[in-house]
């Protein structure tokens, strides 16, 4: 077999295969090659053996030898799978390590029927690339093409995807191209992969000398997940941190190549960006001057919902107080307007010709829970009634709804920040940095969980036995009902933003959804006049309609079908 590696500035490269060193031959473009038979291998640079930057398998961790992996050897059973489009989707975000007590792909399979019964269509899996240690969020990955071994390695992930497809669930994978983790990031030993740093670590050289191969490193990795692992789409982490001044941005290049792959495979492939830019050019078609991605997370929607439900107005939340209706209609609150958190104007307006499904709406996600000091969920401080109203606004909106694992039953477990770096100095630096960060925001250092303590992972793991408790079961039934109603009534999934309107009536919001009205009351008992008599399709807290008036108890909602 042929081993190859890109190391353009090296005068000598060897490959160590099963303990034996072999010289490699320099080829074109800085690539080196060697024909050797074997299983475990590493590239030797100046006497140091390093894992393959394009490794497919790291069975012994990110500092050790890579292992040959043959994608064609896995026996897939999803040949009839034709994929799922993003239009009409309901997305469920989960973390493999804390989704089940087992913390593996195989143990996650046991809960897939729960997701099917819930009514979700897409499972978004947080990063599964190889990172140092056993437990972590996955955003400190350093070998992007290798699946984290403690989760089950490459075959384990394929079994998970295959099983999801067998149940009609599409799989989205969270990938991180904006930085590398602090332990095991050896790319710069091989070539000019890095250029500068961002808040999280070294960034990639996407537009400097020798950047063509670095861009290929990103795009080839993305294509491999979609082609070799049968994944249906990617969630691209923090794309605002990708520094690229090229005429064709790497995201546009990626979207173009994924479109071509989608045509070849005959199934839809989805690219979803996380971005802090409030710029819909990301999801605008390439022929209209955009990047051509399929969707993006809409944090402004989250912030406006969070403030309305919780009353919190610290950090970046103050601008969103009383602005829920405006944000629901505009997608971005900051659309060329002043941001007090950033101390500058921010964002640009969303063209209402764009379909709403290109923006993800959510009450919670891994960031908005896990980056709180104690990782507390919304249900820890917000009443069940207000949570129900929030869920109704998300699932009855023109956006693509997403929920975070356990949200559907108001899980009592927090979801906290955790890592498990074996290096004691790095572990202490992460522990100290985390505590100091939150101390600046008013939390006592003793309140912040130790991210290196295995107990933090245990606390963050879902307790599925909660489903046997009435209060949790009632929330689950509400979520099931909302998702089923969205699926049965096309008006609720209608993505046309130019036809979407939100009225404010006291403490109540009224969403116009074709012939339906979604009335969410966040205050005391309220009466809301409707334009015609109506019938309640779904409601909480015994909300009802009498004639043309919706009667809503405190903190309740009603989805109403208007007559005529």
Brief summary of the model shown:
InterPro entries: GH (IPR017853), GH13_cat_dom (IPR006047), Ig-like_fold (IPR013783), Ig_E-set (IPR014756), Trehalose_TreZ (IPR012768), Trehalose_TreZ_E-set_sf (IPR044901). Pfam families: Alpha-amylase. The chain is an alpha/beta fold.
For the structure shown, list the relevant keywords.
564 residues; alpha/beta; 8-stranded parallel barrel; 5-stranded antiparallel sheet; 15 helices; globular; Ig_E-set; cytoplasm; Trehalose_TreZ_E-set_sf; Malto-oligosyltrehalose trehalohydrolase
Structure description:
This protein is α/β, with parallel strands linked by helices and 564 residues long. The strands form eight sheets. An eight-stranded parallel beta barrel has the order 9-10-13-16-17-18-21-22. Helix 6 runs parallel beside helix 7. The radius of gyration is 24 Å and the shape is globular. Keywords: Carbohydrate metabolism, Cytoplasm, Glycosidase, Hydrolase. Pathway: Glycan biosynthesis; trehalose biosynthesis.
Write the layout of secondary structure elements.
Layout: E1 2-6, E2 14-17, E3 20-23, E4 25-26, E5 31-35, E6 40-45, E7 48-50, E8 66-67, E9 91-94, H1 96-99, H2 105-109, H3 112-118, E10 122-125, E11 129-130, E12 143-147, H4 153-166, E13 170-175, H5 187-190, E14 194-197, E15 202-204, H6 211-228, E16 233-236, H7 250-265, E17 270-273, E18 295-297, H8 299-310, H9 324-330, E19 337-339, E20 344-346, E21 359-361, H10 366-370, H11 384-395, E22 400-404, H12 424-439, H13 454-460, H14 470-488, H15 490-493, E23 501-505, E24 508-513, E25 516-521, E26 526-529, E27 534-539, E28 544-546, E29 549-552, E30 556-562
Parallel strand pairs: 9-10, 9-22, 10-13, 13-16, 16-17, 17-18, 18-21, 21-22
Antiparallel strand pairs: 1-5, 2-3, 2-6, 4-5, 6-7, 6-8, 11-12, 14-15, 19-20, 23-24, 24-25, 25-30, 26-29, 27-30, 28-29
């Amino acid at each position: 077999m042929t081993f190859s590696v890109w190391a353009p500035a090296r005068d000598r490269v060897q490959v160590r295969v099963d303990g034996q060193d072999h010289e490699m031959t320099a080829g074109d473009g800085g690539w080196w090659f060697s024909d050797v038979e074997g299983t475990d291998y590493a590239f030797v640079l100046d006497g140091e053996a390093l894992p393959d930057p394009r490794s497919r398998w790291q069975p012994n961790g990110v500092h050790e030898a890579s292992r040959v992996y043959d994608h064609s050897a896995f026996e897939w059973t999803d040949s009839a799978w034709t994929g799922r489009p993003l239009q009409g989707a309901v997305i469920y975000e989960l973390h493999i390590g804390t989704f089940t007590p087992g913390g593996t792909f195989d143990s996650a399979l046991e809960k897939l029927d729960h997701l099917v019964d819930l009514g979700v269509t897409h499972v978004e899996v947080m990063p599964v690339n190889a990172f140092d240690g056993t437990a972590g969020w996955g955003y400190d990955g350093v070998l992007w093409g290798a699946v984290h071994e403690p989760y089950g390695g490459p075959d384990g992930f394929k079994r998970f995807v295959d099983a999801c497809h067998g149940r009609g669930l599409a799989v989205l994978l969270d990938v991180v191209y904006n930085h590398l983790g602090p332990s095991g990031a050896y790319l710069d030993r091989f070539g000019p992969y890095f250029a500068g740093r961002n808040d999280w670590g070294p960034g990639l050289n996407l537009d400097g000398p020798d950047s063509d191969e670095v861009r290929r490193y990103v795009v080839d990795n993305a294509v491999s997940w979609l082609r070799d692992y049968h994944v249906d789409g990617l969630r691209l982490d923090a794309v605002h941190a990708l520094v690229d001044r090229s005429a064709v941005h790497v995201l546009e290049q990626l979207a173009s190549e994924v479109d071509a792959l989608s045509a070849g495979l005959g199934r839809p492939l989805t690219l979803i960006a996380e971005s802090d830019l409030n710029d819909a050019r990301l999801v605008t078609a390439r022929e209209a001057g955009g990047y051509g991605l399929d969707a993006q997370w809409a944090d402004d929607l989250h912030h406006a919902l969070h403030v309305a439900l919780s009353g919190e107005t610290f950090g970046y939340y103050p601008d969103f107080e009383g602005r829920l209706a405006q944000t629901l209609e505009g997608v971005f609150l900051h659309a060329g307007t002043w941001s007090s958190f950033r101390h500058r104007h921010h964002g640009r307006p969303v063209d209402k010709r764009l379909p709403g499904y290109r923006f993800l709406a959510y009450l919670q996600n891994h960031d908005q829970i896990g980056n709180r000091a104690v990782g507390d969920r919304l249900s820890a401080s917000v009443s069940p009634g207000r949570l129900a109203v929030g869920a109704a606004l998300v699932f009855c909106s023109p956006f693509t709804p997403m929920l975070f694992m356990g949200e559907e039953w108001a899980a009592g477990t927090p979801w906290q920040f955790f890592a498990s770096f074996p290096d004691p100095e790095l572990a202490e630096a992460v522990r100290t940095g985390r505590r100091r960060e939150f101390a600046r925001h008013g939390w006592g250092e003793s309140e912040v969980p130790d991210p290196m303590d295995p107990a933090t992972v245990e606390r963050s793991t879902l307790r599925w036995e909660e489903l046997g408790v009435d209060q949790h079961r009632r929330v689950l039934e509400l979520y099931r009902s909302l998702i089923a109603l969205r699926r049965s009534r096309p008006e609720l999934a209608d993505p046309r933003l130019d036809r979407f309107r939100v009225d404010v009536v006291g403490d109540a919001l009224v969403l116009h959804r074709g012939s339906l009205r979604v009335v969410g009351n966040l205050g005391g008992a309220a009466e809301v006049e409707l334009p015609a008599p109506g019938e309640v399709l779904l409601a909480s807290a015994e909300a009802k309609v009498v004639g043309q008036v919706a009667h809503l108890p405190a903190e309740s909602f009603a989805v109403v079908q208007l007559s005529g």
